[in-house]
Amino acid sequence: MVISRQILLTYLYLFVYVLLSSGVILYNKWVLSPEYFNFPFPITLAIIHMAFSGMVAFFLIRVFKVVSPVKMTFEILWFGNTAYLFISVAFIHMLKALMPVATFLMAVIFGIDKLRCDLFLNLILVSFGVVISSYGEIHFNIVGTLYQVSGIFAEALRLVLTQVLLQKKGLTLNPITSLYYIAPCSFVFLFIPWYLLEMPRMELSRIRFNAWTFFSDALCALALNLSTYLVIGRTGAVTMRVVGVLRDWIVIALSTVIFPESAITKLNVIGYATALFGVVTYIYLKAKDVRSSQTPGESNTDRAAKELLMTEKRSSDQHGENEEAPLVSSLKSRKSPVS
């Protein structure tokens, strides 16, 4: 059996995404942790990422003219980074099993999904597993847990709002143009809490500043953002969730080796396995819904091409109506009797 070049390219994108995502998570933990690099300023780190990404996107669009700016979104980055200061990497990724729960609730609130009994019961199972995992956490910290859960719901809100824009406004995602708008907006939104919360605590004499560390961390974050949009555009949200589950297992395993404080208990494993079972079931139910909504024998490519043709047809019809309107009104005026 010969594997096509497109399939190999898709697997390469997925591999790069998992590699970069895991690397950025562990790198951020190392930079922020007082026990290692000791830079306990998560908002500052996020601002550095956004400033670097915005600068690169600006040069690619305005100077090198790689692509044209087409859309605008925003994203929230603060809460997730702050959680690294209070709880372990392993426990953070066990809490991320709540992501489908948060996304589903936000989708129901914004009217792009319906409250179904099977999905609701499944998400209760996920929440139950996360509660068990939290109960078994050795270094449980309520502040870090609240930061992480807040970050999960903020990310879910961002995803749902993006879906609303894509479905109702017909906007398209592009990695570079998205960063072109995301980075400056995120920088501005993050500047306010940074000025109020972190700047008064920052003493330049006590900060370990290493240009290579911050540059490499920002470069990895930029590459992760670009790879995320590439994978979403090539595979879809369901595949991203499956790959995200695999990524979380890898991060949990690596964190227990790299960071001794990330030790996990049997109750952690039982709780996360319960939540993971619920997540996989949720993904299966959503994928089943997608398949049932497609015409039998119709591939994703055919469906996308059909939607594109329908869009072009609607656009041409509207254009034709606009051109015919003056002619019709002119003919009617000629036929009307002169008073």
TrEMBL record:
Keywords: Membrane, Transmembrane, Transmembrane helix
Taxonomy, superkingdom: Eukaryota
Sugar phosphate transporter domain residues: 12-282
GO cellular component, one term: membrane
Membrane-spanning intervals of the chain: 7-27, 39-61, 73-91, 97-112, 119-140, 178-197, 209-232, 269-285
Compositional bias segments (type: Basic and acidic residues): 300-322
Subcellular location: Membrane
Chain segments carrying region Disordered: 292-339
Membrane topology: Multi-pass membrane protein
Protein name, entry field: Sugar phosphate transporter domain-containing protein
Naturally occurring in which organism (per UniProt): Castilleja foliolosa
